[in-house]
Write a structure and sequence with these properties.
alpha/beta; Rossmann fold; 7-stranded mixed β-sheet; 7 strands; globular; binds zinc ion
Length: 281
């Protein structure tokens, strides 16, 4: 039964974004699929170049499957990230080589290479150099809360926001709409488990979010394939096909700066409003 929270079922417009480059900064392998899996595919469909920058190799994520003999967690997770990036149409993948800080209170946050203790200004300069080389006019990064409070996601907020400032890019701050997820996903989104593990709140209220990007069934299938490419972290059963659209069919952003490339993908919040007022699909 469709309701106003379902992603729109009408065909999506495909803007012409050739010549535009979008840099998406994420903390760990799998965040790119979970939080921007639809958006990255739609940007690629529209002809935009997407550059995925991942700050750590997710070293603290225990593997749920046996590793190959001699294989390390970061090796496995980078291989999974490469598969996910290919599914999402990413043009270039860059690793910043910092180390996963783990959850709040873990001693891993004290490691010399831990992202949470890195100098944000120095890392921001690294990201800004990539953005500048690529001519990226748009930077996507975590919101001020680090989506669900993970120390590495808070760090990528600081780094991404500074980098966007340095190059004068429009910044889109990723989050999740916790009200939407409360109604549509009832604890079934991966962020629910992550927030429970970190013992923090997560996301934003609907009214705080400026842009909701949605996708077609093909984009949803691609997003699920990209998430499950991270097989060391996510089991297929963790993201069942039943209810997947309700939990993962929207991606949410708060924009800093002038309307930019992501706005051209259309705002599903406005589409829902349109349907409510006209009764038409
Ligand atoms: Zn993460």
């Amino acid at each position: 039964m469709p309701n106003d929270l379902s992603p729109p079922t009408r065909p999506l417009t495909v803007p012409d974004l050739r010549g535009h480059t979008v840099l998406a900064l994420h903390a760990h392998p799998d965040d790119e699929a979970i939080f921007t899996g639809i958006t990255l595919q739609r940007l690629a469909d529209a002809g935009a170049r997407t550059v995925l920058v991942v700050a750590t190799a997710g070293e603290m994520g225990t593997s749920r499957v046996p590793l190959r003999v001699g294989e390390t967690i970061p090796e496995r997770r980078i291989a999974e990230l490469e598969r996910s990036a290919a599914v999402l149409g990413v043009a270039r993948l860059v690793l910043l080589g910092r180390r996963d800080s783990g959850l709040p209170g873990w001693t891993s946050a004290g490691h010399a290479r831990a992202l949470a203790v890195a100098d944000p200004a120095r890392l921001a300069r690294e990201v800004a150099v990539i953005a500048d080389d690529e001519g990226a006019g748009t930077v996507v990064h975590d919101d001020e809360h680090g989506i669900y409070g993970h120390p590495d996601h808070r760090a990528t907020h600081r780094v991404g926001a500074l980098a966007a400032d340095l190059v004068g890019a429009t910044a889109y701050r990723m989050t999740v709409d916790r009200e939407h997820l409360h109604v549509s996903a009832r604890g079934r989104h991966l962020v629910h488990g992550a927030a429970r593990a970190a013992a923090v709140g997560f996301g934003r209220a609907t009214a705080e979010i400026s842009l909701a990007v949605t996708g077609s069934p093909r984009h949803l299938a691609g997003k699920r394939a990209a998430i499950t490419a991270h097989a060391s972290q996510v089991a297929s059963d963790d993201v069942p096909t039943s209810g997947f659209d309700a939990a993962y069919g929207l991606e949410w952003f708060r924009r800093a700066g002038a309307p930019g490339v992501l706005d051209a993908l259309g705002n599903a919040h406005l589409a829902a409003d349109h349907r409510r007022h006209t009764g038409r699909p």
